[in-house]
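Key idea: predict the complex, not the pieces.
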Amino acid sequence: MPWSDTPPSRPLRRDAERNLQRILATARRVFAARGLGATLDDIAAAAGVGVGTVYRRFPNKKALLKALFGNKIRELVEIAQEALQQPSGWQGLCFFLERAHAVQAQDRGLRQMLMCDRDEGDQASQTQRELGPLVADLIRRAQAEGALRSDLTATDIPLIAVMISGIMDQCSAVKPELWRRYLTIILDGLRATRDAATPLTVDPLTEEQIERVMGQGAPCAGHGDRGAKTDTTSRP
Amino acid sequence: MPWSDTPPSRPLRRDAERNLQRILATARRVFAARGLGATLDDIAAAAGVGVGTVYRRFPNKKALLKALFGNKIRELVEIAQEALQQPSGWQGLCFFLERAHAVQAQDRGLRQMLMCDRDEGDQASQTQRELGPLVADLIRRAQAEGALRSDLTATDIPLIAVMISGIMDQCSAVKPELWRRYLTIILDGLRATRDAATPLTVDPLTEEQIERVMGQGAPCAGHGDRGAKTDTTSRP
DNA sequence: ATTAAGCGGAGGTGGCACCTCCGCTTGGTT
DNA sequence: AACCAAGCGGAGGTGCCACCTCCGCTTAAT
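Result:
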């Protein structure tokens, strides 16, 4: 299964198979916790194997990522399909946003994958093309009922995901479920009309927690990403 | 003024003064456009001077940043004060969120500064401590009127900023004013009750634009930040 | 017992940001 | 006009870190 899709040339030796599984499991865990920036060296160490062992199974980091995230993204399509079964369009939309973000909440690497790391023909963007029509349908239905504000479009959904992801990235270490609080607020903003606000079931961050999240020593280590050098106004 | 706060040891030579101003102006522009990750080498080149010239005026990058962002952050305090003058609490809150984010929209570096790069006693976190009570007041007033949902707290404000910043970071190159669309939605989510949804005055991204924003080749270059190596559960 | 498959992890490679240093240039002064 | 300290440029030093390779040793399988 790894190492491109060459047919099962021959079964691996038992220890090798065990190591492979260890690597996959550890990689999932590490990328989920630390994001795609985690190095294969880190993963090897965490899995208790040498780097060489990782590189024998996967020619490079990208190949490992592909192996890991291939199906994960299909999950979103399944959630959208299940959402379309919901009794009302509005419920369907809520269901989708809730579940899709719950999946992303577990996995920082997946978030980065969805936000920006796609490259051309891989499953990621392909699956996302499948997702598009389903989401458009969810929106259409909810609007037809008059429940969803009429000026919302399909392209708003990924940008809602961008907002919620921001919360997760900043806060998951301190309060992993906090994103639900803000999704509730956003959903209240999406309703065409409503009376009372939906009660927030997740408590806000305390002053002390917010200090920890925004304060000194937070991520951005070394100022992280240094901004595209290539000008952002034109594209080849 | 630069180089710590030693008294005006002696006026600079005319050409040196000109270069200093060039450096400051360019640094503002570059950090605003590319974020704090921009290098002093980049800034020097953009300003048409050598790196050495930059380092003669500022001992290191941090010093330059301090010189640039000192006042910028006070601006937010002033906005909050002006917001407290508004006729209603709700209008005040809207005014504050609108204006405060408008300032951040112009400046990616400022955003990063506010989100995470503070270190202990500098003006940034100090000013932010000033901001706290003002924001708390804005919220109290808007709730007293019954306009703002009663379960919102002061710590929600910076997290709304996190969400909106996410939009700006992803989209400012493609559609700089897009954040207003999502702020409108969030504000509609913050109202205690409402009838119709506030019309969105900013158009959504087109399919083609969203492709450009999320698609292949986006930021995250090299996967940027590689996730705290130090465990996030304890702090010394 | 034999042997190919597998293993580990030191180290090579490349890239990048921060900053220093020193020989040349130039504004200001006398 | 002549002098010289202040200023300048930018090549290059330093440190760091991620990716990946290589080869002598170990071990499962026959």
